[in-house]
Structure prediction request, 401 residues.
Amino acid sequence: CIQSELTVLPYGRQSISAADIAAVTEAMESGWLTTGPKVAEFEQACAEQVGAKHAVAVCNATAALHLAMLVAKIGPGDRVVTSPNTFLASANCAAYVGAIPDFSDIDPISYNLCPQSLSANWKPDVKAVVAVDYAGQTADMPAIAEVARSRGAVVIEDACHAVGGSFEHDGELWKVGGHPWADMTTFSFHPVKTMTTGEGGMLVTDNGEYANKARMLRTHGMIRGDGELQGLGDAAFEERGPWYYEMQDLGYNYRITDFQCALGLSQLRQLELFIARRREIVAAYNEAFSDVAILRTPQLRNEKDRDLTSWHLYTLQIDFESLGITRTQFMKSLAETGVGSQVLYIPVYLQPWYRRTYGYGTGKCPMAEHFYLRSLSLPLYPEMNDQDVSTVIDAIKRLVA
Prediction:
């Protein structure tokens, strides 16, 4: 793979091969830069990969989450519950449509949305749940779906961390995006994710009505001759030549380009290799850190998922107070040894806009707050070689010693 020299190992990084570059070059030389055949080809490949009936490619995963809200008809007067341990977009998508973003606490094992907390804190105006697969480990989707659907809410799985992942339930293997406990699933192809299109996202679903609506809304709410045309309301304007289009809803420009989808197709062919290397690195970290009392390695809610999780992040829990050092000092010391790190995530409801707008504050989700104060994500990406992994392990052990 093609890689520049790095002075500090970042917490995440894309893997770009000569085959990827060739695929993008071929797409750019084809004459189609956008709205061309590679988009549909990428959608079909992703749908087949996860086992879903429909896939809708968009410019980023935030757009996919926004479209999920729109096609589910979430709006003012509705409440959407998500995990506080996530990126802003998982909650912002509800605010985009005028709904109230709300939060329920995480479980102490997977750091994902806790079904028991979700049930205990349920409000009658909840119309959707956005369940986030933190670090690549799936949320307890069967239990979350049972809570939400029994109360009439839509279930959206934010699987931006879990591209290519699977999980076991009742002896059966289910792919993320292709199981029955989510009405829609969204994926991210940002450069630090499991595979990349540069920027890009995908909405997958078995619901044809949702998929068709999402395709229309991603392109300004327009349809052409292959849709159900309504007419312009005046006989003088009823000629429907090859140019004819109708805007039937207020949509957006959420399109993705052909050369991004060409990169996505090339990356998709390497996805299993990417995930396999991530699992190797996670196993090496776990073995090295499991006997260090001051560290807590990532845990699995179901041990059968050990070889099924796609591992976007490797997040340690570190007792900085017992170390007598702040997290900022710890990260600075790591960087001085050539090891980058990141903190993912600040509980969303503590952000200034959320505090001002909805009156949220500390104490809302105690487990998420506890997790945030101790979490640190270490470098994890396929381009890391064994020496890079050893460098990270040695740096962490020296600091905690």
Q: What stands out?
A: The longest strand covers residues 126-132. The longest helix spans residues 258-289. The chain has 13 helices and 14 strands. Confidence is low (pLDDT under 50) at residues 1-5.
